[in-house]
Structure to design on (239 residues):
């Protein structure tokens, strides 16, 4: 357990899961660890947050989406699922714009299509109608940001110095260097908030004075990590 940059109100706990990238077996294993953690350490109220990038590169993107589209895997625990840049690339590609299709396929989209049994070279590319309706509805429903007490959960980060309401989807989904290198308050309108994010893979979780990063490269030979936030502390579960 380590001191955290944010806080969760008494009686609450948040589990925040990093980038899955099609690693369905690891996601199952991590959900199992979370259930065991809840059984061992009771809490008044828990929340499960997934930070996006469920798809691409890994072997079973379809399996990951099917699991999450079915609702929270933790009985009695609500789930929030955020959009990552890879889900955004897929949604853009589904609209059929050629540049978006090329961009997505060059960033792991072919592996996702294969997992759904779809052909990347299909001329009509009616992927929206070929996907299971529940999966497509889930992808479209993903939100960009979620706040709990002293934390904001987002896929990539925020642009320092810009009010939260003025942040662009591009930054929330894609930003790296300006956010990762910033120290001190990130938002002029809410200087006390800390951020929990994925998007940028590291060998281990990262804790600074304003953020916690939990993308530990599950699809690149690393681990799938969950930050456990409670009070003014953070600990980690990983598989």
């Amino acid at each position: 357990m380590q001191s955290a940059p944010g806080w969760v109100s008494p009686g609450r706990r948040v589990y925040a899961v990093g980038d899955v990238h099609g690693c369905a077996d690891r996601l199952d294993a991590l959900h199992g660890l979370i259930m065991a953690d809840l059984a061992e350490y009771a809490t008044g109220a828990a929340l499960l947050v997934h930070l996006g990038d469920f798809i691409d590169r890994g072997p079973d993107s379809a399996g990951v989406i099917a699991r999450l589209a079915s609702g929270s895997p933790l009985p009695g625990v609500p789930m929030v699922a955020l959009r990552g840049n890879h889900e955004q690339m897929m949604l853009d590609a589904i609209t059929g714009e050629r540049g978006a299709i090329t961009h997505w396929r060059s960033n792991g989209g072919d592996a996702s299509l294969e997992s759904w049994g779809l052909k990347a070279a299909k001329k009509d590319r009616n992927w929206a109608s070929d996907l299971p309706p529940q999966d497509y509805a889930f992808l479209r429903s993903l939100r960009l940001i979620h706040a709990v007490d002293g934390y904001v959960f987002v896929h990539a980060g925020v642009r320092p110095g810009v009010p939260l309401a003025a942040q662009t989807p591009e930054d929330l989904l894609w930003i790296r260097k300006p956010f990762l290198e910033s120290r001190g308050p990130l938002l002029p309108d809410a200087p006390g908030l800390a951020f929990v994010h994925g998007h940028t893979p590291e060998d281990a979780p990262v804790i600074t004075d304003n953020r916690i990063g939990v993308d530990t490269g599950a699809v690149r030979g690393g681990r799938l990590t969950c930050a456990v936030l409670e009070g003014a502390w953070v600990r980690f579960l990983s598989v």
